[in-house]
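Let us practice reading a record.
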Amino acid sequence: MDPEVGENSFEHGRLGALSRWGRFLCGPRNLKFKNMFTWQFGKTIAMGQALSMLICGTAVTCQYLADAGVETPMLQSFLNYTLLLLTYTLVLAFRRGENNIVQILKTKWWKYFLMALTDVEANYTVVKAYQFTTLTSIQLLDCFVIPVLMLLSWIFLKTRYRPLHFIAVAVCLLGVGAMVGADLLAGRDQGSSRHVLLGDGLVLVSAALYAVSNVCQEYTVKNLSRVEFLGMMGLFGTLISGVQMAILESKAIPVISWNWTICLLFVAYTLCMYGLYSFMPVVVNMTSATAVNLSLLTADLFSLFCGMFLFHYNFSGLYIVSFVVITLGFIMFNIVPTYTADQSYATNDRAYHLASSAYVQQDGDIVVDWLQKEGQENEDRIESNHRTHCNGFCSQI
């Protein structure tokens, strides 16, 4: 037997095995470095971290307000929803035709009411949980939003994930574990230990509510309108949080010692929340609600880095490790796009078979190029059919 032939056969076999593993993890797409790390991909990462920094801003201002004896989470939410009302809801009010606020309220008011109620209560329950459980428990259990969000996306949005997506989520959760370990080593296991089970239950309820809210947000901004979503959230969020504030914080608000510092903290918190609500639908539209929540896992780390300078927290090298691991998981999740359940697999299966044989052909590049072209045409056709179906469905709701 010719040694050179045997060596080539071994090389082709190894490439074929790597190809099969790659297709199993990532799907039929022929991923290349220049196609993965594009300007759009970099912008997605940057915008995700910008959202994390906005959450960090809300955490820092909340800490200062708590140190000043101000505990009015519903008032803070009410100010944010009111700002959304004064901008996006007014835009809807001046629109004409079917996109006018009157027409939206006639057909879908109860859906947006439930969405706003879910969002308001998710914000309230997670803040309430700090009174009963510890910071460590909240950081760990709050990650429950990701598997719930993936499940809801699978059921209602027909989103399908590759094995690499599940590996990426596991990597992100590993980074959260490193962050919690760093907190324990630094002695930051803060919070109440009274009624721990109640507090943990509130965190899980909050995570589930956030998942429902984020799925609704993803569907709305991708199929209807970002302005419509924010306008309706501003309208019903203001009403719901206003009523809840009058019931729960009627005694806490009058005793606030108002001064310039307190006022500026309220303004900073409201602007951070307004920016978060305004720009999060943009990132969701670019990626998905699951990807956005993975990027938001770094928000606690940004808060910790700020706390080292503002509140003199102890530093641990595990914080850096956690940030790198979470960012790596987020990149892994976004490298391979998700797909929908109604996608045709006939051409993909054919592509699998021919692509595996392309490695042992001298004209393999020509075959792979043909496969990419055929696959792209199929994806375009599927996307066109899905858009037609979605527009017909959306016009009925």
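A brief commentary: Confidence is low (pLDDT under 50) at residues 344-375, 381-397.
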